[in-house]
Amino acid sequence: MKLIECPRDAMQGLPEFIPTATKTAYLNTLLKVGFDTLDFGSFVSPKAIPQLRDTAEVLAGLDLSATKTKLLAIVANLRGAETAAQHPEISYLGFPLSVSETFQRRNTNQTTAEALADVATMHELCERTGKTLVTYLSMGFGNPYGDAWSPEVVTDFTQQLAALGIHIVALSDTIGASTAATIAPLFSALIPAFPAIEFGAHLHTTPTTWHEKVSAAYQAGCRRFDGAIGGFGGCPMAADELTGNMATENLLAFLAENGLDSGLDSAAFAQARAAATGVFAFH
């Protein structure tokens, strides 16, 4: 099972700016844990997400000399993708493609058709620069806008991504709308239908619903999970204020419960968890 730690998602909505040195120190602690991938920052407009305006400076301060963890940066447009692609330390670019037309316009100021065209160009850019594009299907389990959603809609989006040659697709529960009853059928249908794609789960959850969500995705064949220590972060549009990122601790508990090895350094994880408490204590 691949564990993707997402401090970027945990930090991005915080109103008080976290000093660059604090961010860098925290990320360096995470790099010692052994995660498959670290979603560390975002090359987007500083006006849109001021918290991440220092991503390039943070990247320059990361110690990558003794880590197996790969770096992922989120981008919102071609300009951001081109900037991120200039950094050889970054392995993955992540782009949010929304199943909801309304959310695509709100998130990246595009139609979904325009975003899909950008995905094609970003994929070509990644191929040229030795990187891999991770496409997040945001609002992948439903949306609050009344836009059409069904397993067939998600399958249609995935088909278009498969035709472009996209290798990684993460179904993203942007507002915590998913349930075991929606998660299981989606992964059960998509994973065998698109064997060339690695599917991931970026789930948002309340403290009481995490287990059923992880179990449903895992039992349906998903082996790539995003999490954030402490469950920090999440979408500000979620109706329930307790809805946040999937807590990494819960993912580890699920693995332990099922006799599965996380592959993480437990001592380093404990240090990272303690460090997270300090980083997010006043937010």
Task: Describe the fold and architecture.
With 283 residues, the chain is α/β, with parallel strands linked by helices. It has a single domain (2-280), classed as Aldolase class I (TIM Barrel, Alpha-Beta Barrel). It has helices at residues 7-11, 20-30, 55-60, 78-85, 101-108, 112-129, 151-164, 180-193, 210-219, 248-257, 266-280, and strands at residues 2-5, 37-43, 70-75, 90-98, 132-138, 168-172, 198-202, 204-205, 224-227, 244-245. The strands form two sheets. Strands 7-6-5-4-3-2-1-9 form an eight-stranded parallel β-sheet. The protein has a two-stranded antiparallel ribbon with strand order 8-10. Helix 4 links the parallel strand 3 and strand 4. Helix 2 runs antiparallel to helix 11 (266-280) and helix 8 (180-193) packs parallel to helix 9 (210-219). The two termini are 31 Å apart.
Give the total of domains.
1
Level of helix content?
40-55%
What is the number of beta strands?
10
Roughly how many Å apart are the termini? 31 Å
What is the general shape?
globular
Name the poorly predicted regions: none
Structural class: alpha/beta
CATH homology-level superfamily: Aldolase class I
| Percentage of β-strand residues | 15-25%
Order of strands across the main sheet: 7-6-5-4-3-2-1-9
Main β sheet profile: 8 strands, parallel
CATH architecture: Alpha-Beta Barrel
Whole-angstrom Rg: 17 Å
CATH class call:
Alpha Beta
Mean pLDDT: 94
Number of helices: 11
Keywords: Lyase, Metal-binding
Organism: Hymenobacter sedentarius
Protein name: Hydroxymethylglutaryl-CoA lyase
Family: Belongs to the HMG-CoA lyase family.
